Amino acid sequence: xxxxxxxxxxxxxxxxxxxxxxxxxxxxxxxxxxxxxxxxxxxxxxxxxxxxxxxxxxxxxxxxxxxxxxxxxxxxxxxxxxxxxxxxxxxxxxxxxxxxxxxxxxxxxxxxxxxxxxxxxxxxxxxxxxxxxxxxxxxxxxxxxxxxxxxxxxxxxx
Length: 158
Known about the structure:
Number of strands: 2
Strand content: 5-15%
Strand order of the largest sheet: 1-2
Largest sheet: 2 strands, antiparallel
Number of domains: 1
Shape: globular
Distance between the termini: 36 Å
Radius of gyration: 15 Å
Helix content: 40-55%
Low-confidence stretches: none
Mean pLDDT: 89
């Protein structure tokens, strides 16, 4: 099992807040039962280059997370998860995440605190926007070092 860091915690909150505390697969609203809504990674968290990338994560209820094969359960329906990914983000982004996962995120441990700080600020902004009445999906930017890595891969696809 991959150790959870403060960066993981804030990233997870951003992913779940982005979906307004609703499962992105079955649509159940878990605003009042937030513990049942998971941050589900398409590519395992063990790949540091995609671990904190918004295009690699979904808000899934515990049942859908298990069904699609995320988290501690493993297995699941990989083809169904890939189709779900393509519906939400597009197959070109799935290929981008696959390619990005193969890159080495140098000095990952040195980035954990700045990553946590980055996503903590984003989460606070998202929660304020929710309090102000915004109820649609709120997209958020990845940690800047990941943008640099993504841009490198994107040029290879062109």
